[in-house]
Amino acid sequence: MSDPEPCKMEQEDTEEQRRHTGEKMEETGHSILSFDGVKNHMCSDCGKTFMRDAELKLHQRIHTGEKPYKCSHCDKRFAQFGSWKRHERTHTGEKPYYCFSCGKSFTQSSSLLRHTRNICLKSH
């Protein structure tokens, strides 16, 4: 098996390249975090490892049961912001993901992607 071709994005020092690798900008006041693939943040409950501390903190909610996001329409609570936001759309009917080929809209980006691949791209 041959070595994978190096990512061309990593050969340039641009803001776009830093976003691609996960490196944070100095201007934000956060320390620079380069993406090196090392998972050095370990969950003390189950041993699962993560590349970023923020990912570990999200994971730990599985063990603690913490659900800081509450639906404004019902009593459901969520551990992750994205899950909460997706649930809120079931009440509001918001469909922010729009197919530019046919005009159909979706509540989730994954639904738009599936639609684009399986419906719109195949029909054109």
From TrEMBL:
One of its GO terms (molecular function) is zinc ion binding. Residues 1-31 are annotated as: Disordered. Pfam families: zf-C2H2, zf-H2C2_2. PROSITE patterns: ZINC_FINGER_C2H2_1, ZINC_FINGER_C2H2_2. It is found in: Nucleus. Residues 1-29 have a biased composition (Basic and acidic residues). InterPro entries: Znf_C2H2_sf, Znf_C2H2_type. GO terms for cellular component: nucleus. Keywords: Metal-binding, Nucleus, Repeat, Zinc, Zinc-finger. Residues 41-68, 69-96, 97-124 form the C2H2-type domain. Its main location: nucleus. Belongs to the krueppel C2H2-type zinc-finger protein family. This is C2H2-type domain-containing protein. It comes from Cyprinus carpio (Common carp).
